[in-house]
Amino acid sequence: MTEKQKIDDIISLWTFLQIHIKNNVKVSFADLSFELETVIKDYLNVFQDKSDFYSNINEVRPNYPAIDLISKKSHVAIQVTTTADTKKVKETIETYKRYNLNFSELIIIGLDSSYSTKNTDNVKVYGIEYLINKAKFATNAQKDELYDILHRQIPLNTLYPIDDKTCFEIVFKVIDRSALRDYTEVEGSYERMEKGLSEIKEIITTGQISGKSIRAKALVEYTQPIQNELRNIEYDISTIIQIYNKAKNRSNGYCLCLTMDERKQIDDLKESIMDKTNILSETLGLPLRIRKMSRWN
């Protein structure tokens, strides 16, 4: 697995967890079948000095008010919560003050959405991006640790136990669309092509499409052989989007034009994606196939 694939996997897993928490965790993390606070503790400790590891205060004093994790040396406290909206943040700070807690910094991490709550000098509020950005700027060795922690501690199969075949059938139907089937000679709008390919990439990596009632498994939930094949498809899609974005930046807001080499690259990649998708469909015992159009060039 390449470093890019590893970071994509980490991001995909956090994104899936965010969706799972939003849809299934009604009251508290007790609704989960694993200790999310422990996962986050171990995840953050990858970036901490060994003398300043975070510990779970609730393991020492159950139901400790306002906070979940503490680092004794730097004196930072963290609360892990489903929602970190303005109301929740206000309640947390009020409880924090009522119990006379006095850490150098209080970090509140809300996992079911993205937040833009204003930070003060010693209180910082983050969404899931806080954990994702940690991975983005991690060293290769740290990424290896993060990847192992997430895959070792999170029971993906129990969170969304739908088989690969069923989920890939959903993904196939999103892949089999004109944004992929149409070669550049007949492509009506490159902008619509990019939007369609981005949705294919989204359903592969996260298992859903924003604003649409489509749900499959996230990429990290598939068994490893199927996951590898889907990664290859997603990589080809990303390459097409990169070619499109390069041409778009070059156009400076005027009509977007692709060079002959770029058009050939895109058409070759589309053909590769269709072939890989059909092979994977056959591997899973599905009768579905993408019908390729004839190329003019």
**What is the CA–CA distance across the termini?**
35 Å
Percent in helix? 40-55%
Beta-strand percentage? 5-15%
What's the main sheet like?
5 strands, mixed
Biggest β-sheet: strands ordered side by side in the sheet: 1-2-3-4-5
Q: Give the low-confidence spans.
A: none
What would the principal axes of the Cα set say about the shape? elongated
- Report the C-alpha radius of gyration, rounded: 22 Å
Order of helices and strands: HHEHEEHEEHHHHHHHH
Broad structural category: alpha/beta
Number of helices: 12
What is the arithmetic mean of pLDDT?
86
- According to DSSP, the number of beta strands is 5
Structural account:
Helix 1 runs antiparallel to helix 5, helix 10 runs antiparallel to helix 11 and helix 11 runs antiparallel to helix 12. The chain is elongated, with a radius of gyration of 22 Å. Helix content is 54%, strand content 7%. It has 297 residues and is of the alpha/beta class. The two termini are 35 Å apart. The chain has a five-stranded mixed sheet with strand order 1-2-3-4-5.
